[in-house]
């Protein structure tokens, strides 16, 4: 595991051993740290030529709004995650991004990607890995919404979030800080806030997990994982692959 | 638009202008063409160190099976699509892949990725773009299953498939060959085969689209696109971005 303090370097380091060369190139790709207040829209659906960022601190989410006003939250961005890089590559953003807390970001110098990949090709493989892992999470959300009941999909989502946070040094195996409102969580799970409330009460009464005052606590991780068929391997947290 | 006959080069060429250097590097990354019969499992969920391929001809699909035996089809692979590259990068496949027709594939020399990215960094950007577009499609499936009714999600899926096929030179703006069985299509849409049958009848009777004898015909693309809020821009089929 990479001992760097930068959450992105730490995350990529779980896949590719990053030497001084790669770490410096990764730093050089990013601009200065900028603060964005909570509740700001950073990129909107359909926007062209927008910037792409790395989240250094705080939480954001990506979502799509439908013609009838319904909203599907696609993903949650935490420290070490890209924000809008995929949308940048697609030139026109296919989703919107909004901050959920105050967020510190660095802007990616997208015009230097080709040069950087030439100089440090391992970084290109690491970024492909990160994109693959992000897609694996969207796939899990698809499977959840398509085939898991409300309890199983809530549990799956929170176990995944806990594992993602732990990788970048936030929270522990049994609890993590979670500033998500119930309405954002419900829109991610594709259920109503009232239904979510009932699910969370049921999980609390079964002594499985508690989500209260901005913290999620797993009371019985084994039973939780069994309940939803959670398999940590898709998060690919095992030993570094490319040395 | 790239005039090469290779569907992957043609697809990537929609994003990055590929010169002789890039085209040759792309060829060198791929092994000889191999035929795989219809109905074969190519990669299974949980498999480690499996190969990654490019589909040269034919159709395949990726899916996940749940504990209770339910199946969610994640995506359909057609000529020019990667098959298992994302899973390879994640080391342990997070999904299974099976052929739907006889399929011709080429194996990717994944051990040469780093060297190739050093030599032709534009190819790395093109592959990141392709991964981004694939993820955009999974996002659309998530939105469909989470927030669109059965008619809208069926229409959305078939419009997307038509656009993807057209990009690699199969089908036209109004019709395309579609070897998907109703059970695979139903598992992709997260509805039952009986329900799908009813939806397809309704679409036919409304003179919107026909899916019969292995062909999909759009009778009124404008009404179809309006019905489901279909926005071609997420498929990123506009002019080449990186010249």
TrEMBL record, chains A, B:
Query: Mind telling me which PROSITE patterns this protein's record contains?
Result: CNMP_BINDING_3 (PS50042), HTH_CRP_2 (PS51063)
Alphabetized Pfam families for the sequence = cNMP_binding, HTH_Crp_2
Query: Ranges for the Cyclic nucleotide-binding domain?
Result: 14-112
Q: Where is the HTH crp-type domain?
A: 148-222
Write the record's keywords in alphabetical order, separated by commas. DNA-binding, Transcription, Transcription regulation
GO molecular function of the protein, one example?
DNA binding
Q: Which SMART domains match?
A: cNMP
Q: Which CDD domains match?
A: CAP_ED
UniProt-listed GO biological process terms: regulation of DNA-templated transcription
Instruction: Supply the name of the protein.
Output: Crp/Fnr family transcriptional regulator
Per the UniProt record, the source organism is Oryzicola mucosus
């Amino acid at each position: 595991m990479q001992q760097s303090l930068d959450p992105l370097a730490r995350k990529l380091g779980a896949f590719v051993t990053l030497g001084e060369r790669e770490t410096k190139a990764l730093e050089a790709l990013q601009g200065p740290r900028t603060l964005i207040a909570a509740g700001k829209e950073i990129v909107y659906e359909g926007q062209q030529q927008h910037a792409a960022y790395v989240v250094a601190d705080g939480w954001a989410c990506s979502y799509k709004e439908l013609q009838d006003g319904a909203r599907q939250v696609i993903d949650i961005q935490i420290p070490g995650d890209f924000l809008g890089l995929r949308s940048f590559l697609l030139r026109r953003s296919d989703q919107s991004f909004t901050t959920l807390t105050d967020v510190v970001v660095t802007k990616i110098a997208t015009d230097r990607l080709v040069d950087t990949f030439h100089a440090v090709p391992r970084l290109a493989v690491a970024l492909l890995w990160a994109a693959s892992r992000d897609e694996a999470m969207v796939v899990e959300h698809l499977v959840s919404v398509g085939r898991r009941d409300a309890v199983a999909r809530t549990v799956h989502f929170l176990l995944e979030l806990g594992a993602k946070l732990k990788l970048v040094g936030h929270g522990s195996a049994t609890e993590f800080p979670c500033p998500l409102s119930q309405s954002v969580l419900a829109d991610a799970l594709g259920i109503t806030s009232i239904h979510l409330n009932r699910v969370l009460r049921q999980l609390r009464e079964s002594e499985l997990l508690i989500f209260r005052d901005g913290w999620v606590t797993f009371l019985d991780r084994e039973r939780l994982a069994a309940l939803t068929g959670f398999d940590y391997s898709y998060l690919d947290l095992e030993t570094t692959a490319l040395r």
